[in-house]
Amino acid sequence: MTGRRVVLATRNAHKIGELRAILAELGVDVELVGVTEYPDVPDVAETELSFAGNALLKAVAVAEATGLPAIADDSGICVDALNGMPGIFSARWAGANKDFTAAMTQIERLLQERGATAPPQRTAHFVSALCVAWPDDHLEEVEARAQGTLVWPPRGTAGFGYDPIFLPDGHARTFGEMTSIEKHGLPPFGLGLSHRARAFVKLAEICLDDR
User: Which position among 74, 136, 137, 210 bears the catalytic label?
Assistant: First the structure.
C-alpha cells in the first residue's frame, strides 16, 4: 500500500481527519482520501450484527466501486450496564443530524434509570474494527478496544462523538479533553490510547510496510 491512494469508506470529515493523523503518526506513506471524492459510490447499508461485519461490508464495496484499496472503520461505544448498547448503533443513536449531545444524554438517562451512578457501575469500552480490502479480493481485518468509565456531565470539546463522556482507564481527562496527539500519537509524544490508534498499530504490523 505504500505510496498509493487509499479510499476511506466514510463521509465523516471528523473520522477522515482523525485517521489521517493516525497514519501520519505511524509514518505511513499513503494518500488517504474519503469516499466523498467518489460521488458515484453509493452508501453501504450496515446490515451486519458486529463491528467487524460492517467494516468488511463497507471496505469490499468501496474497493470494488473505485478499483483502489479501501479501508473501512466501524466503531462505537459499548456500555456494560446497558448490555453493550449502543454498540454498532452508536452513530444511529445520534440520529440523522449527528446530535451526539442528545445521544450522550440518552445514555446518561438510561444509566440513571438503572441506578448506575458510581464509577464501577459505569464501565464502557470503545471498539474499532478495521478492514482493508484490495480490488483483487485480498482482505486484512483487525479489531481493538479502549477501556474506560463514563462521566457526567460531558467534559471537553476535542474529538467527536462520545469522546466527552469517556474517561480512559488510568487517566484523569476524558478523550474530549485530550489533544489528537495524546489520544492517537505513539510514545514518546502520545499515549496511543484510542481504539483507532490501537487498531491501526495492529494493521500497520500486517500490511502497511515501509513505516
Answer: 74
